[in-house]
């Protein structure tokens, strides 16, 4: 009986110690960016410098790196993207890299399990991109990834750690898809003139068509101050300063009545002060 009690006490102690929660040495992070008509998401673990020499030591040069710690680093595209001139279909992929002194080779692989160089198989590559290394004046203690330079059809996944930074350019080709949707909407019973005008102004750079569309919008909504601001911007781009000023003043009039100080400020600063 005494022996059984001792075994039970030992088991309880072991169980108790086994339940202690500790922070991850390289905590996991998931970042997600709305981009194009979809999203891009990256899941990776974030090791720290901790006084070590990182590149060329902890992370050897010219060898495959999981671009993180612990498990494989995963990148997920909800829509097709273009990387290095190659179309990458929507889905989950491994994100690997081969660090060098002057540039990194960044690899998108079909294999989601590569967490050490021995598991890497080049035949699973979807695309490889050479990314030049930038030196950082302020070292980054913890491996960090973020989306930068996010535009309508392009963005960059920036990777920074210790004294180095590299960026992976990601692009989409969605203009024709949006144009088809815009034209379909314009043919409907309730066309969205603001969206259509914005598309032709910002994406197609067809300012005359954009002006025609936004004019139809303000004819339907006489007090739509947001449409008058868009109209003023298009007119300003066309070089019609008189019309741009008149539209900006309409925006200020209706925005003031609606107590929307943001549009009053934008009309004054973006249009009237710059004419």
Automatic annotation (TrEMBL):
InterPro entries: DUF2911 (IPR021314). Keywords: Signal. Pfam families: DUF2911. Residues 1-18 form the signal peptide. The keyword Signal applies. This is DUF2911 domain-containing protein.
């Amino acid at each position: 009986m005494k022996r059984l009690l001792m075994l039970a006490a030992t088991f309880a102690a072991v169980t108790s110690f086994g339940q202690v929660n500790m922070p991850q040495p390289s905590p996991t992070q998931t970042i997600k960016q709305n981009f194009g008509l979809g999203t891009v998401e990256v899941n990776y673990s974030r090791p720290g410098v901790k006084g070590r020499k990182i590149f060329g030591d902890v992370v050897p040069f010219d060898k495959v790196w999981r671009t993180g710690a612990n498990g494989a680093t995963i990148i997920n595209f909800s829509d097709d993207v273009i990387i290095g001139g190659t179309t990458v279909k929507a889905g989950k992929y491994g994100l690997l890299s081969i660090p060098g002194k002057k540039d990194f080779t960044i690899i998108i692989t079909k294999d989601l399990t590569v967490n050490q160089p021995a598991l890497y198989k080049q035949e699973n590559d979807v695309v490889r991109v050479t990314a030049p290394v930038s030196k950082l004046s302020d070292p980054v203690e913890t491996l960090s990834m973020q989306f930068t330079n996010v535009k309508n059809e392009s963005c960059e996944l920036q990777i920074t750690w210790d004294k180095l930074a590299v960026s992976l350019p990601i692009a989409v080709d969605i203009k024709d898809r949006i144009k088809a949707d815009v034209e379909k909407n314009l043919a409907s019973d309730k066309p969205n003139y603001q969206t259509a005008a914005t598309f032709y102004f910002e994406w197609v750079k067809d300012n005359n068509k954009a002006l025609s569309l936004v004019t139809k919008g303000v004819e339907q909504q006489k007090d739509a101050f947001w449409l008058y601001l868009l109209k003023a911007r298009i007119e300003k781009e066309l070089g019609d300063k008189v019309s741009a000023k008149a539209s900006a003043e309409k925006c200020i009039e209706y925005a003031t009545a609606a107590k929307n100080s943001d549009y009053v400020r934008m009309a004054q600063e973006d249009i009237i002060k710059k004419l």
